[in-house]
Design a protein that fits this description.
509 residues; alpha+beta; two-stranded antiparallel ribbon; 19 helices; 63% helix; globular
């Protein structure tokens, strides 16, 4: 459980540096940490069991310092100092433009800038470009020259590595270079593939609402999804279906694993199978644009895949902490991404709670077993993300279990049918598979609408403060430790927290 113990100190350093500039503390804590670590290797300390805390303190301080350092560096990398006046920039389009009512939202990478704005080179910005015949023809990788003023991006965009945002006037930009697929870097090539698949998908699915749901479900592209559909999914607790993450990867990974099961099960054949599977998993992740929830899912399946080669059970809390540690090390801003938080909490909750719930009911019937597994996993995940969901979305879906029982099997079939339909459409232009897909999408939407119209489907307009959120999770951790450690001290601490929460609630209301 080494990474589970290391992670909190890295997180604490990141959090502290985010809200307070504690850079002067960095060298002191790092020096102290290194000193304690060196001392822990000295014979008179190493042989004394009661002095084992010295190495723990040393490593903790080093990780705390590391958190401060990487957050400081990352914050400087997304700083935007060019806020005075209009600047001229050559930029490259690095994502699919999202259509708004009057503009396209374009994510761009700054390639060149006038001398006064030289510090903006290689930074990512978002430009809102008016809709016209030229902007409608923009492709990933295109080079644009634009003249505009960009403002410092808000915090939620900086967590996505975006430095600045600005509106570009109709006459203040033009395309200077067409995209060349051969010259694009791998990440952009995969996004081009995604863009082309989305165009083909629109031919397969003529209904705009059905297309928007299918593109979000399969490719994580929500640019065409209207607010009404988003809200309907949120109301019934199905928002995770539209956010490509572990559920989607488990379905796709399972299908691919089944297809490749003929390879065999010797050590060499297991290695060959994973050498085929894992590049496909990461290619899919690149095509989705590598959001934090996707990186988490792909990383977990990579670790599980490697463990599978050696018959090692690698899907554990420590594996989750290992993935979180290195994701935060590569980009500490992930810590503030809602998808990252919900994804990790859901998996952590499943790993801790699900084994206890599954034991409550045993059956030899495979169909009943499948649905019980679906219920237990859904319930476990919902427990873990409930406080955070209320904090961010002020809503609690009461029918989440019914939703998952109805929606996940349908979503699984759709995730199989969509790529099959695209393949058949490419080969034969039209096919019975596309007809079946459209019928299934119609059923999928009907089920969503039916569930959304149920009375008491959700509790709305509820809220908790950040302090409430902190206390609730502390209580949940204590309750989990009661079952895991089976020590009376955690019962007492849970009772104390409950009493404190009641007093705090009564005093604040």
């Amino acid at each position: 459980m080494i990474f589970l113990r290391l992670l909190p100190f890295l997180v604490f350093g990141i959090l502290l540096q985010t809200y307070y500039d504690v850079t002067p503390l960095l060298y002191f804590s790092l020096g102290l940490g290194v000193s304690f670590t060196v001392i822990s290797f000295m014979p008179f300390v190493k042989t004394q069991y009661k002095l084992r805390f010295v190495s723990v303190v040393g490593i903790s301080l080093i990780l705390f310092s590391l958190g401060i350092y990487i957050m400081n560096v990352s914050a400087k990398n997304v700083e935007w100092n060019n806020v005075d006046g209009v600047g001229v920039y050559e930029v490259q389009l690095i994502d699919i433009p999202i259509k708004k009512p009057k503009t396209y939202q374009c994510k761009l990478k700054v390639l060149k800038a006038e001398q006064s704005n030289h510090s903006s080179i290689n930074k990512h910005i978002i430009a809102y470009i008016p809709i016209d015949s030229i902007s409608q023809a923009l492709n990933i990788g295109d080079h644009l020259l634009l003249c505009s003023q960009f403002a410092d991006a808000p915090h939620y965009l900086k967590t996505k590595s975006v430095s600045a945002v600005g509106l570009v006037n109709k006459q203040a930009w033009h395309k200077v270079k067409e995209a060349s697929f051969a010259s694009l870097e791998l990440t952009l090539k995969m996004l081009v593939v995604k863009q082309k698949l989305l165009i083909k998908l629109r031919d397969v699915i003529p209904d705009s609402k059905h297309y928007a749901i299918a593109s979000a479900l399969m490719f994580g592209y929500k640019g065409d999804l209207d607010q009404e559909s988003r809200q309907a999914f949120a109301n019934i607790g199905a928002g995770h279906i539209l956010a490509v993450s572990g559920l989607h990867f488990s379905i796709i990974f399972g299908i691919l694993y089944f297809i490749l099961s003929f390879i065999g099960n010797s050590l060499l054949k297991r290695i060959i199978r994973q050498l085929i599977l894992l590049p496909l998993v990461w290619a899919f992740a690149l095509m989705l644009g590598m959001p934090p929830s996707v990186i988490r899912a792909a990383s977990m399946f990579t670790v599980v895949g490697i463990g599978n080669v050696f018959f090692y059970k690698s899907f554990s809390i420590n594996t989750l902490a290992f993935v979180a540690f290195f994701m935060l090390f590569s980009n500490p801003f992930y810590l503030y991404d809602v998808g990252f938080q919900l994804s990790f909490l859901a998996v952590l909750s499943i790993l801790i709670i699900n084994p206890y719930i599954e034991k409550l009911y045993k059956t030899q019937n495979k169909i009943l077993g499948y649905f019980w597994s679906l219920i237990s996993v859904s319930f476990s995940a919902q427990i873990g993300v409930l406080p955070l969901s209320i904090y961010y979305f002020n809503q609690f879906p009461l029918i989440f279990l019914i939703t998952n029982i109805c929606i996940i099997p349908l979503a699984t079939v759709l995730l199989i049918m969509i790529p099959v339909s695209l393949l058949f459409h490419s080969l034969f232009q039209t096919s019975f598979v596309s007809i079946i897909l459209n019928k299934l999408l119609n059923l999928f939407v009907d089920v969503i609408c039916f569930l959304d119209n149920l009375p008491f489907r959700s509790i709305d307009n509820i809220s908790i403060s950040l302090f409430d959120l902190f206390l609730v999770y502390i209580l949940m951790i204590n309750i989990a430790l009661i079952f895991i450690k089976k020590k009376i001290v955690y019962v007492y601490s849970s009772i104390i927290i409950v009493i404190f929460l009641l007093i705090y609630y009564l005093c604040s209301h």
